[in-house]
Structure formats: structure tokens, C-alpha cells
Amino acid sequence: MTMSLRNTVLAALSVVPTVHSAAHIPSVRSGNTAAPVLRARADCAGDPSCTCDVLQEALTGVNATVFPSDGAKYTDFEDENYSAACRLPAACFVNPKTAEEVSTVVKILSQQGTKFAIRSGGHNYIPGFGSIDGDGILVSLEALNSTELSADKTTAKIGPGNRWQAVYEALVPEGLIVVGGRVGPVGVGGLMLGGGLSYFATDRGLAFDNVKSYEIVLADGSIVTATADNSYSDLYKGLRGGATNFGIVTSYELYTFPVGEFYIDARSYSTNKTTEFLHAVAEYQQEGQLDSLSSISETGANILLLYSKPAQQPDAFSAFYDLGSYTPILPAFNGSFLNVLALTGAQFSTGDVRTYGETFTHEADGDMMVALYDIFQEEIANLPTGAAGVWVPNPIAASVATKGKQYGGNLLGLEEVPQQWYEWFITWTDSTQDESIWNISQQITQRCTAATKAKGVSLPYLFMNTAGKAQDVLDSYGAANVATIRKTAAKYDPTKVFQNLQNDGFLIRKI
Ligand SMILES: Cc1cc2nc3c(=O)[nH]c(=O)nc-3n(C[C@H](O)[C@H](O)[C@H](O)COP(=O)(O)OP(=O)(O)OC[C@H]3O[C@@H](n4cnc5c(N)ncnc54)[C@H](O)[C@@H]3O)c2cc1C
Ligand SMILES: *[C@@H]1O[C@H](CO)[C@@H](O)[C@H](O)[C@H]1NC(C)=O
Ligand SMILES: *[C@@H]1O[C@H](CO)[C@@H](O)[C@H](O)[C@H]1NC(C)=O
Ligand SMILES: *[C@@H]1O[C@H](CO)[C@@H](O)[C@H](O)[C@H]1NC(C)=O
Ligand SMILES: *[C@@H]1O[C@H](CO)[C@@H](O)[C@H](O)[C@H]1NC(C)=O
Ligand SMILES: *[C@@H]1O[C@H](CO)[C@@H](O)[C@H](O)[C@H]1NC(C)=O
Ligand SMILES: CC(=O)N[C@H]1CO[C@H](CO)[C@@H](O)[C@@H]1O
């Protein structure tokens, strides 16, 4: 690249001011100041590797690094994604280390019209969401990994590139915690955008119901802070459902709360008890879950009974105690939240495993749960050799919807009833099986959804964090919420950078 190209790039970048002030009028409304400079830019004419060079030049001397496909660390970056089916060969990886560097990256991608994908923890299962192949660039946020407590310790600013493990390791020794993921290795960035299911949902709603402010880089490169009551309050509200439709979030400021010891009871029930077990889950939803200190989570036959105070067999879990024999994973104990993470994190290996799953929702109903499990068993009997299925009901209390409303409202359109958010997934290793597994997955969702509709217990909501590639997640929030997301996207991204250049995602362009 020539010196004049470098100067042109740097000049272009310095023209657009970065905006920190919360009270500032959104710069997108005062016209895109970058536009005149665009004509003088180096024109990559859609060639992503040329854009990689432009990024490299612009970021020389700052902290971010661009990893070209022949670079030493390229493979490390490619391999970050959880599902091996999502480890795609981007034209290059760029890892900005500050919000300013993210802004530089967004301006260049926008100016060059180059396709891109955004990745935080890489745990999304859908190829092309947090990954992109050679026709685009992956913006990898893992260096935005700080966790900073406010001076009065009532909030923590958490970078999207964190894994929850690091967040909790920073907060729990202070006697504090935030509403976040249940498993240590999972990323912050994507989980927070989809809502975020934690062990505290019954008591405190979803993770994003507990955000005080978002710092986000918009399409024109401006860096804005959105809160419930500043001039970006519409953007703040939009981010409680609208996910990747507005920009790249560079920090989540979450309310903290005190945390002490938990009663931790991890056990597994024999598969020949599945019918009784699923009825116990439904019974827990009607009674035990009303005790908002309790939560249960499952992965296949393993279940974690968690109570957010020291206890001895709390009544909330009596539906499970009544089931009789089980195999303890560990004898029940009182322990810290970091003990909980050590237990759950160990359940998820990565290696070369490909993973894909989908979701659907219905009102709590034990018989329905058994019928759905039977459908799943029938379908996974058709899986090709080497593939396996895991069935994960997530019992959601009515209070999750209520708390969301109390904490400022979100755009998910949740109904205030006890409900099941299913999460099920398939693991395999042979890439030639990808298509047949995606097909079987869609078949499972279709059959299960039809069964819940036939019984009149279907709910429209689809949980973004566990949804499949063809599922209409935004549509499931209802027409009024879709209209809000559409309007907010049009206001903050009038040139449609995140609609048209973003590789894939739950985007408003699709509906
Ligand atoms: C083992 C495992 C355990 C899980 N446990 C939970 C759980 O307890 N609770 C729960 O709610 N979910 C859970 N999930 C689901 C999880 O929330 C999603 O996989 C989520 O997408 C992970 O976020 P990420 O940052 O790792 O993903 P990524 O794949 O990096 O990102 C997901 C999506 O968000 C976009 N994105 C990411 N960061 C940003 C950003 N900063 N700005 C704009 N767009 C961005 C990406 O482009 C992509 O479309 C789990 C998943 C796995 C595999
Ligand atoms: C590089 O990172 C350091 C530490 O985070 C920061 O102080 C410095 O300002 C960054 N440099 C640039 C040019 O962004
Ligand atoms: C955070 O990111 C920086 C830069 O990539 C890295 O050096 C550091 O090890 C990371 N910290 C954690 C806790 O992962
Ligand atoms: C169920 O499985 C358990 C353990 O695998 C076994 O001990 C028990 O005999 C089985 N019960 C029936 C009725 O098959
Ligand atoms: C946890 O601590 C409580 C209160 O000290 C105690 O009553 C209970 O027996 C303990 N539970 C376990 C499993 O040790
Ligand atoms: C998957 O489904 C599509 C659409 O129905 C079909 O065209 C394709 O042949 C299927 N592929 C496999 C491997 O089953
Ligand atoms: C984050 C993660 O799971 N990374 C893994 C991706 O896959 C490679 C190759 O199998 C592993 O080495 C990484 O640990």
C-alpha cells in the first residue's frame, strides 16, 4: 500500500468525530460527515483482501491487529468458534482492542462496502452469524475483555469479548455478581443481545433487563452511550430485543447485586425415569419455582438444583426429591458461585465437534413435555452414524416476563405465564452430514411446534440464543416490537451498513 493511500485512510478516519457524550444529538441525524471523504478513498471495489490491507494500514501503530489468511495466528482466530461448523476462513480477522478501534474498523468496512461478521465468544451455532468465509472480514471482539466495577460498586462495565468465567472471577471475590450466563466459557457479547438466561431469571428477569447502559459503535463510526433516560433511550430500548441490527456493542454496564453461598445439588436421573422426571419439571414450575431463590437447569440426564442461599434440601425442589433414586454428580453442598461454574463448565467440550440446535416455546404442561420428548427420540433415531442429540427443557417462570416489564420493558413480547423454552442440540463431527442434520433439526422443530399447536399450548416466542438458522426470531416478538426494531435500525443505521454488509444474523432485512 502506498503512503498516499495510508494518508487518505487516516484523513478519512479523522474526519468523523467519535462521540462519547451521552447527551449528544445522534450524529446520524446531522448527516453523514464521512460521505465527502468516501470519494477520495482507496477503492477496494469489493475485494475483501484489499480491505484487509486498508485495515492493516489504518491500525498500524495502534493496538488492533489484522490477521491475514497466511498469518501465524490466523488459525487460532479461526478456531475460536464453539461449533466446528462455524470455523470459517475469513479473508482476515481484525481484533480491535478499544471502542475507538472498533469505530475505525466500522468506518473502513462501511466505506469499502466490505462484508463482515461480528464475533464475541463465538458460541452461536449458526454458520455465518459469528463467522464468515473468504468473501468477508471477521471482526473479533475478544480483546474487549475488561470487567470494571463502578466506584460505588453498584454497576460493572463488561466488555463483549469476555467469557462469563472471567466476569464472575472478577466480581464474586468482591461479594458481587451480575445477571449473566450459566456456563463459564460462553461469550458475553452474543448472550447479552439475545436476552440472556441466568440462574437468577425468576428473581431478576433476563440478563438484558439488568443493563444500565450500552456503549455501541454505530454505522457511521460514532461511539454512543445509550441509557434508559438519555437522548439514546430509543436505542437502549431497541437493544433489548433488536440484537445486531444497530451496531457493535463495545460495553455492557450491568447492575450488580450481593452474592453469597449457594446450595448446589447436581445429580442425574436414569433415562428410564424420563417420563416421571419431565412431570417433576412441570410440577416444579407450578410450585417450587415460585420460590425465586431456586433454579434448575438440565443438560440431558444431568440436572443442577441451585438455591441462592445455603440450605438443606429446600422445599422448592421437592418434586425431584419425590422421584427417588438418582446418581449424585457430587454430594449436595453449600458453595460459591465459582463452584457452580466449575461443575457446569466441565460439561461442555469443544474439540472438532460440530453443534447445531433450534428452539420453540410452550406453556408449562407435563404431558406435553413427555409427548415432545418422544418426538425428539423418534427423530434422532434417524441421525447419521456418529451424531447424537441432547434435549434441554428450560423452565421459565411467569415472573421473567413481569420483571422485564418492571425493569423498563423489553421487545420480546413475552407472556406472563409459566413456560418452557426448549433448547435441544445435535453434535457430530463429519462435515458431509451437515445438511442432513440441519434437515432433521428443522423436522424436529416443525413436528414439535405442530404438536404444541394441536394441544393449544404453543407460544410464539423464540429464544434467540438457542434459535436455528431458518427460525423467524424477530417475527416471534410480535408486529409492534418488530416495528420498533425496524424504526430504530432505520434511524441509527440509515445507510443500512448492518443490514446489507453484515453477513447474517437475526436481521430486520429478513422480515
Ligand atoms: C455451552 C453453551 C452454553 C450456553 N449457555 C447459555 C446460558 O446459560 N444462557 C443463555 O442465555 N445462553 C446460553 N448459550 C447460548 C448463547 O447465549 C449463544 O450461543 C450466544 O450467541 C453466545 O454469545 P457469544 O458472544 O459467545 O456468541 P457469538 O457467536 O460471538 O455471537 C452471537 C451473535 O451475536 C453477534 N454479536 C456478538 N457480539 C456482538 C456485539 N458486541 N455487537 C453486535 N453483535 C454481536 C454475532 O454476530 C452473532 O450473530 C449457551 C451456548 C453454549 C454453546
Ligand atoms: C493501546 O492500549 C493501551 C492499553 O489498553 C491504551 O492505553 C492505549 O491508549 C491504546 N493505544 C491506542 C493507540 O489506542
Ligand atoms: C484479554 O485480552 C487481551 C488482549 O487480547 C489478552 O492479552 C488477555 O489475556 C485477555 N484476558 C483474559 C482474562 O482473557
Ligand atoms: C432403571 O435404570 C436404573 C439405573 O440405570 C436401574 O438400576 C433400574 O433397574 C432401571 N429400572 C427399570 C424399571 O428398568
Ligand atoms: C448449608 O448451610 C446451612 C446453613 O448453615 C446448613 O443448614 C445446611 O445443612 C448446609 N447444607 C449442606 C448441604 O451442607
Ligand atoms: C435437505 O432438505 C432439502 C430441502 O427439503 C433437500 O433439497 C435436500 O436434498 C435435503 N438434504 C439432505 C441431505 O437430506
Ligand atoms: C473456544 C473454543 O472452543 N476453541 C476451540 C476451537 O477448536 C479448536 C480446534 O479443535 C480448539 O483447539 C479450541 O480450543
Instruction: Determine the CATH topology of the largest domain.
Output: Alpha-Beta Plaits
Shape: globular
For the residues shown, what is the average pLDDT? 90
Give the CATH architecture of the largest domain.
2-Layer Sandwich
Structural class: alpha+beta
The rounded distance between the terminal residues' Cα atoms is: 41 Å
Give the ligands present. flavin-adenine dinucleotide, 2-acetamido-2-deoxy-beta-D-glucopyranose
Uncertain segments: 1-40
Content of β-strand: 15-25%
Quantity of strands, as a count: 21
The main sheet comes to: 5 strands, antiparallel
Task: Report the CATH C-level class of the largest domain.
Answer: Alpha Beta
Overall domain count: 4
Enumerate the strands of the largest sheet in spatial order, edge to edge or round the barrel: 5-6-10-8-9
Rg: 23 Å
Organism: Hypoxylon rubiginosum
Protein name: FAD-binding domain-containing protein
How is this structure best summarized?
The chain is built from 17 helices and 21 strands.
Protein model, in words:
This protein has 511 residues and is of the alpha+beta class. It folds into four domains: 5-16 and 26-31 and 42-140, 2-Layer Sandwich (Uridine Diphospho-n-acetylenolpyruvylglucosamine Reductase, domain 2); 147-258, Uridine Diphospho-n-acetylenolpyruvylglucosamine Reductase, domain 3; 262-335, Alpha-Beta Plaits (2-Layer Sandwich), CATH 3.30.70; 349-479, Alpha-Beta Plaits, CATH 3.30.70. The chain contains 17 helices and 21 strands. The chain has helices at residues 3-15, 35-38, 48-59, 74-78, 99-112, 164-171, 188-194, 201-204, 233-238, 274-286, 318-321, 337-345, 366-380, 398-406, 434-454, 479-492, 497-501, and strands at residues 65-68, 92-95, 115-119, 136-140, 147-149, 155-158, 176-177, 211-217, 223-227, 248-255, 257-258, 262-268, 294-299, 302-307, 327-328, 333-335, 354-363, 388-392, 395-396, 419-428, 458-459. It is globular and about 70 Å long. 50% of the residues are buried. Bound molecules: flavin-adenine dinucleotide and 2-acetamido-2-deoxy-beta-D-glucopyranose (NAG) (6 copies). One 2-acetamido-2-deoxy-beta-D-glucopyranose (NAG) binds at residues 143, 145, 166. Residues 82, 117-124, 129-130, 141, 160, 181-183, 186-187, 189-191, 193-194, 196-197, 244, 248-249, 348, 465-466, 505 line the site of flavin-adenine dinucleotide. This is FAD-binding domain-containing protein.
